[in-house]
Amino acid sequence: MSTILDNLQTILLTIFLVYFCFSIFFKYIERRTNKITNEIIIALVSGISIVLCMTFSITLPTGYTFDFRQVPFIVGALYGGHRVAVFLLSILLFYRFFLDVPGIELSLTIYLMLVLSLWFIIPMFHKTVNIRKKIYLAILASFFGLFYRMTVAIIFHPANFTLDCVGFFISSLIIQSIGIFFFVFFNEKSRKDAILAKEIGKLEKLRTVSDIAASISHEVRNPLTVTRGFIQLLRDPNLTDKEKNRYIDTAVVALDQAESTISDYLTFAKPTLEHINILDLKKELAYTLKIVEPFATLNDVHIIELCQDTNVYIAGEEQKMHQCLVNLIKNAVEAMPHGGKLTIRLKEQNGKAVITVTDTGTGMTDEQIERLGTPYFSTKEKGTGLGTMVVYSIVKAMRGEIKVESEIGKGTSFSIMIPTTKPFPSLNEKIVSYS
């Protein structure tokens, strides 16, 4: 026991080196490679760890050397399989021969018996999914390794096998078993967490798809139902031409609504700008305000436009820029159910065009702000969140960013920042599509 205390620094350094090698593999490499590559990497990591353990060995007063090479040997064999176990045996014997330490025949005997035991333990280790059973099997392998070592020492060196040596073997068994316990436990825990995280990711994706599908079915089904109903009414032979035209107009409007919804989803799914031009944001904003002003007036919302004197230019697609601004302003108006003031500012700052839309509506919490732009999230009772998703997608496609500030009961401020460009590119300049 005193020998272990005297060599505590060497023991801790050895354990740290072995743990470092394996943790790097299990954390960053294992799940990114296939089975064969994993076996090769486990063999290399285990082989390096064995060499390190044998290099930093402990020498007993009797002259008998001891180290923790069995820890990487057993862990590597259990996770790598039979081929890795044979490879590690070769590495261990070769390095033992290289160190020119006497007693290589004894090492061969010990580790051949250990490999034989592992040959039967490895399949059971791979088949079980219970962490506790895996730990039991790993500790059993550790017991076999030290048992074979102690047996060979008793048979071939009985004179050197003192009471101190017995205590050392028992202490080594405890330390080695604890080391293997933590190796297997943390590795299996890490694996389990990785599988759980992967499954949660899949479920999140399925949930997103489910939400979007539900949103599409809801948004498209309603106008299609309206269209179907009015088409059925057109079968009535007693309808006047005026009624027929009214039914047709209503059906067409419903179809246009369905087409608009589908276009919004396509914009969200593929936010690519195909026809990029130089846009004068001052003019585009004025055009957008003409579209939304009747809607704002209807909801008792007063719009205040604050634009700087000089024009601000960006590279973008006109139609999608209109779509982005209309959705943003429309959301701001709907956030003021009892009317209010909507302020729209346009300025150029640090090489970016900044459009700020500020309302005096209900406001949002920090949690709601974090969820903005995600599928099927909306602060409105009957909202789908599609409009905000489209805004975020379009701004991202134009290499821009969105900043949101809000306070419950006081209102919300959306700031869109998009890189500016020259008003009139030269003939040699080429405008590239952003995706």
Q: Keywords for this structure?
A:
alpha+beta; histidine kinase; two-stranded antiparallel sheet; Heat Shock Protein 90; kinase; elongated; membrane; 9 strands; 13 helices; 435 residues; Arp2/3 complex 21 kDa subunit ARPC3; Helix Hairpins
Quick description:
Residues 215-422 form the Histidine kinase domain. The protein has 435 residues and is an alpha+beta fold.
Please outline the helices and strands.
Layout: H1 2-6, H2 8-29, H3 35-55, E1 58-59, E2 65-66, H4 70-80, H5 82-99, H6 104-127, H7 131-156, H8 163-233, H9 241-269, E3 277-280, H10 281-298, E4 301-307, E5 313-316, H11 318-334, E6 340-349, E7 352-358, H12 366-371, H13 386-397, E8 401-407, E9 411-419
Parallel strand pairs: 4-6
Antiparallel strand pairs: 1-2, 3-5, 6-7, 7-9, 8-9
Helix pairs in contact: 2-3, 2-8, 3-4, 3-5, 4-5, 4-6, 4-7, 4-8, 5-6, 6-7, 7-8, 8-9, 9-13, 10-11, 11-13
Helical region count?
Answer: 13
Structural class call reads alpha+beta
Number of domains: 3
Quick check: average pLDDT?
A: 78
Proportion of residues in β-strands = 5-15%
Question: What's the order of the H and E elements?
Answer: HHHEEHHHHHHEHEEHEEHHEE
Distance between the first and last residues' Cα: 67 Å
What is the CATH class designation of the largest domain? Mainly Alpha
Radius of gyration equals 36 Å
Task: From the 3D structure, determine the CATH topology of the largest domain.
Answer: Arp2/3 complex 21 kDa subunit ARPC3
